[in-house]
Design brief:
The complex is a heterodimer. Chain A is 78% helix and 0% strand. By secondary structure, chain A is mainly alpha-helical. The chains are: A mainly alpha, B mainly alpha.
Amino acid sequence: MNPSFFLFFFNITTCFFVSCVFYRLYLHKRYLFVKPSIWVILFLHLFLEYPLAFFDLIVLFTDQKAILDCGAPTLEEIERYTR
Amino acid sequence: MTCILTYIDYWHFLKFPSHILLVVHGVIIASLCCSIFSFRKTAYIIWEKINNHSLLSNNEISKNLLMSIFFLLTLSLGIVIYYNFNFPIKDTTLWHILCSSSNIGYSASREKSLKLLNSSYLKYLYTFYQNTITPIILLSTIHYIGMIKDRIKIKSILVLFFICIFVVLTSNFNVTKSSLLNYTIVILFFIVWKNNLNIIFYYMYFPFILLFSIIIVYFFISQNYSFYKDLETIFSRIFIIPLKMGSWYMHYTQYYGMIGVKEFPKIASFLSMEGVHSPNVIGKLYGPYYYKRFVLESIHANASFLFSFYRAFELFSCLISTLLILALDLILIILKRLRKGWLVIALSMLSYQSTLFAASSYTTILFSGGVMVSIFLIYFLDQFLPIMYSFLLQTWQKTFKN
């Protein structure tokens, strides 16, 4: 079974939940944005969490067979290539 | 296309793919939940200070800002002279781009201009100039010009404008497009903070944004890149590469195992252990496969601190990363002591530096990236520079009287 659909659904739901929290903070608790941790979490959310969801979307809408034929490189393959 | 997708298809690429979900989502949700409930009172006091319009007279702030700009400019001049004393200006990438028509050896010259400098002291000093001093000078200048808008002083605005061009050019001898973009981002953050986080663009800031855009476009054209390709590269560097690099770290750790404190060479050497420079090791291993060509020996495959901690402690890293994100709020203790004018600059710097956490290690951003250094520098400029100035002025006057 293709796991990408479930992964995409899980990741995008989590992203949406976190985005909603940030939006609520912006509307009602804007003073919390003076905290560096809030900004760090916000950018981790934008630059890591969302791309993770979109990685699944790309895999979901592309030819799975072609990807698997190309294959994920094993460590031995990487070492052989670099030598 | 398929080989690019190989790394994106992390479910088949990684041995334990669920770990990436735990590291990314787990840390973000846990730290967000804790962060909402910590340091609320201090955050509120600082927010009130930003919104209070009658804390200091404009004259007092503008005097302090002008003093700081000239203090930082003197420091910059010293650094530039010292840098050019050690590394001739004709060998820099900036010189190659501005004065030479060919762009042969551009990457190598870029590496030589900063990463491969003989003196590590000079390397750190120049990074400090690039990441900390230049943005603070730019923000102070914009803040100052914003304050003197009532009584137009064209001459001083022109002088300050040339100071800005000087610091932007001299802080980019190695020509990193990203640092030019970062200066634009930090200015945008400043505008947002000046308007209490409401995104309103004042007409007077547009020339600055336009200037940076022209410089960036000029560098793109001079390197014979197509606009579409550059746009694709920027998009990829922001949204794809940080996570992709992270998947390399996870892949490597899941096959070779965690390395503990050896991941942090300085701590390892303190504990009499041999440290591992993971960005270089992983870059050399996965880089050729990804780029389909040989990579430079000095390659740095930087990934977010979430992944470098995973390389060190595997899943235990989730707890450590969460605690370290929360520890950043200790900076509020210093922010609370800053006066309003400098508070906005400090917050703009912090907001911009927070973007770096998605693609670099924690200690790098804290020290080389300039989070701690810029906060302490701003604290110094705000609290100690006026005292130093008045002390020097008194001494000068006493000497002349005698």
